[in-house]
């Protein structure tokens, strides 16, 4: 029973990781593609559209850094950058008087980013951590 509980606990650690990685990938695409939702949000918040390009490139770089093996210090910076991105989005929506329907999700992703970084093993890669979760010696990705 303890082994099963341990495996469930290990799996639960990946929930915020998966949420942050998925949101970062989708958000990077949306920012770089400047979809209508992004254009409307940036207009509402008073940000220039070139800022969407800056955010899209930063999210892409953070995603690549987190997913590649090694460079633990660079990963720290990537997670820190995502905290600023999502925390800044929440703060921006609060600053213009938006309700929880606008700032709650960025705040959730801020907390999920903290959790993802805190719960992942230090010094290893994301794929190595995935291998330890599955107990597999086969190569992932």
Short description:
This protein is mostly helical. The chain has helices spanning 2-33, 36-45, 50-67, 72-95, 100-119, 126-134.
SSE layout:
Layout: H1 2-33, H2 36-45, H3 50-67, H4 72-95, H5 100-119, H6 126-134
Helix pairs in contact: 1-3, 1-5, 3-4, 4-5
Give an account of the 3D structure:
The protein is globular, with a radius of gyration of 17 Å. It starts with a helix and ends in a 7-residue tail after the last helix. Helix content is 80%, strand content 0%. It is an all-alpha fold and 141 residues long.
Radius of gyration: 17 Å
What is the number of helical segments per DSSP (H or I, 4+ residues)?
6
Indicate the proportion of strand residues. under 5%
Helix content range: over 70%
Q: Secondary-structure element sequence? A: HHHHHH
The N- to C-terminal Cα distance equals: 30 Å
| Global outline | globular
Main sheet attributes: strand count, strand direction, barrel closure: none
Based on secondary structure, the structural category is: mainly alpha
Uncertain segments are none
Task: Please name the defining characteristics of this protein.
141 residues; mainly alpha; 6 helices; 0% strand
């Amino acid at each position: 029973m303890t082994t099963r509980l341990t495996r469930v606990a290990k799996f639960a650690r990946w929930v915020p990781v998966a949420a942050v990685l998925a949101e970062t990938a989708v958000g990077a695409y949306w920012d770089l593609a400047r979809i209508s939702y992004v254009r409307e949000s940036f207009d509402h918040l008073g940000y220039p559209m070139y800022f969407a390009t800056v955010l899209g490139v930063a999210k892409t770089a953070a995603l690549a850094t987190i997913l590649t093996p090694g460079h633990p210090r660079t990963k720290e910076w990537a997670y820190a950058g995502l905290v600023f991105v999502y925390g800044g989005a929440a703060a921006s929506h609060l600053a213009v008087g938006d309700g929880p329907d606008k700032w709650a999700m960025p705040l959730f992703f801020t907390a999920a980013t903290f959790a993802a970084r805190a719960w992942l093993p230090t010094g290893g890669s994301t794929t190595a951590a995935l291998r330890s979760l599955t107990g597999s010696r086969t190569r992932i990705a």
